[in-house]
Amino acid sequence: xxxxxxxxxxxxxxxxxxRYYEETMVSAYAEGKQPVFNIGAGPxxxxxxxxxxxxxxxxxxxxxxxxxxxxxAPHRPHHNAIAKGVDLKRMTAEMFGKVTGLGKxxxxxxxxxxxxxxxxxxxxxxxxxxxxxxxxxAAKMKGKDWVAVAFIGEGAAxxxxxxxxxxxxALWKLPLxxxxxxxxxxxxxxxxxxxxxxxxxxxxxxxxxxxxxxxENDPIEMYRVSGEAVERARRGEGPSIIEIxxxxxxxxxxxxxxxYRDPQEVPGLRQKDPIERVKDVLLEQYNLxxxxxxxxxxxxxxxxxxxxxxxxxxxxxxxxxxxEDLFAV
Length: 329
What we know:
Elements: H1 5-30, H2 55-62, E1 70-73, H3 78-84, H4 88-95, E2 113-114, E3 119-121, H5 128-142, E4 148-153, H6 160-171, E5 176-182, E6 185-186, E7 189-190, E8 211-214, H7 219-234, E9 240-245, H8 265-270, H9 274-284, H10 290-313, H11 319-327
């Protein structure tokens, strides 16, 4: 499956947007937390899990999705949310705890929810799987060709919800695609120490469904296999599993000392930066000029800058109003 020029341009611009968003959050999150790291200090409180390096997982499949399709994400959700079209200004305001946020500032980074984009983030390991299966069941009962996509980490494939969800989805031929983002670590535990199979796409055989494995964080291959899985789901042929070998350039959470990683691991991974790979494809195979690529990059960065400015300028909820909202029926 070749990538149409409009799709690969969208993929590149969205990957740049995700990366710049996460790098900007690194700086915003660090404010007020030094010299001693304090998770509750600064304008962005709480834990923060960033997805720089994992962009191909999100853009490769979201390039095939429609507005009516559902996406659920784990506790590292920003790339999935951005690729699905979640309101970037309201998403950022939510992380800053502002009243203009998606949840009026009450959910924060790990509980993003945008009904318009049909996106939700459970925060708890494997929590999005049953929700995605429910959305897929609703689509089937309504006679719609909608698809549900559940993003999870490779560690969540060892949770009970993974097996329960896939068993029912296969039994009922639900239009569900499970995308496993294998970034090699469940917090600080390497995959080799926690998982019996080398790649989780092998588990698809237990449910009689297709399984795909995308190596080397390849955005183009992710687009190809995602197209097959999404179209299969739309035809009513049931679920699929996609595992992508991806990489996180940052820690499990911001402030993570990362003592479990080889000091040369991240520099080595950055030599395989997926954004640069797509840029090379645009230049060499699609004959885009450097000026055209720069325009895509500038547009992506402008949207991110505007989102952060909106979040900073927005007001915090009034304490009494926050309580009234919390207990409103």
